[in-house]
UniProtKB/TrEMBL annotation:
Family: Belongs to the phytoene/squalene synthase family.
GO-annotated cellular components: plastid
GO BP: carotenoid biosynthetic process
Family annotation (InterPro entries): Isoprenoid_synthase_dom_sf, Squ/phyt_synthse, Squalene/phytoene_synthase_CS, Trans_IPPS_bact-type, Trans_IPPS_HH
Molecular function terms, GO-annotated: 15-cis-phytoene synthase activity; geranylgeranyl diphosphate synthase activity; squalene synthase [NAD(P)H] activity
Coiled-coil zones: none
Protein name in the entry: 15-cis-phytoene synthase
CDD domains for the chain: Trans_IPPS_HH
Organism: Cymbomonas tetramitiformis
Amino acid sequence: MVLFAGHLSTNRRPLEKSSAPLCETLFDPRSCEHAASMGERQVPGAVRCGTIQEQEQEWERGSKGLEKGLKVSASLMEPPNDLNITAAALEKAADWSRDLLGRGKEVEDNALKACMEAAEAPCADWSCQLQDEILNLAYDRCGEVTGEYAKTFYLGTKLMTPEKQRAIWAIYVWCRRTDELVDGPNASRVTPKALERWDERLQSVFAGEPYDVLDAALSHTLSEFPISIQPFRDMVDGMRMDLVKSRYKNFDELYEYCYRVAGTVALMTVPVMGIDENFEGDKEKVYHAALSLGLANQLTNILRDVGEDVTRGRIYLPVDDLKRYGIQEEEVVKGLVDPATGKVDDRWKEFMKFQIARARDIFKESEKGINALHVDARWPVWSALVVYREILDAIEANDYDNFTKRAYVPKWRKTALLPYAYLQGLKGIDRSL
């Protein structure tokens, strides 16, 4: 289920334990631009000798092991000159985006099919050729990154079994790294070609050929849980969309984007969460419910972050909905709040009421699938849902001002919601699935 989709676009800050930004803490020096040309492919389960072994040696020399070994440069985030963005590169990416738009439901259905096939197939039959100590350190580092960037979500994972915790952390870190490509400190220099190389690297991870140790943690996860590559590739495509598309003419277009950057997380994580052994319904409906939670989380992000996104030149709101409420794009850019009085434009209030109602409906749709998950996943997922949904209440409490105010759920309120989430998880499986 989508536990952390909402956390990827939040808390954009360096790790507190290091002065280096996330991109410098997570990426191998040769990670993306050169990863696709590092010699012949190796047998499944093998690791690339020039990277993982070097990091192992560095860890052995360092007093803190993994933390020392991961302080490497971020060529993935800082492409060499030949990868600088050009008009031709952007046009190629724009052509790709135009070709793909309008296929959102088709893409989602294809991914669902791939995930259902993976669920019935045996897990990958390789194991990463890493010492247990090194693999444990890699998973621990994934946990550290998760804890720094998504504290509430991280606490939720502590309710799971150790095996599920580690798997979720590995998936989170891959998603975090991918998100940093277009939203991180060096996003302006990331190109379509860089994303192509990142996709190639992903395929190597799924082939049992991880490039660095954090990739190895994900590769090891794939040998433990039946996870399809398709949602991962769809997320990379979502990052491609972000490079060239900053407006969405209708909700269908926005839905496609939300699927790619958040719904995909559901498809990645449901196999880890597991479906209750007593569930006798259609498992695909459980995945659909998870997709709804990812979509609702992302829509909530969008509604919360309107002002922030405008400063980055992006408006993730359906243009036709804006027009329906008599709002021009230029007004959104300026902000529909009177700077002298702080009064929010009535048109914006009505527009926001409509958008919030839609998000709540989608949250409601997602609820029916949670109790079909394995029992140890229900409380953290319910917690994620009820806490994230409260952001919508916070937007209302701010009188719909998401230009000058940031809606958030205070820590005391999050804590107060946990018993409710726990009780929801004790209810039976929704028989309508």
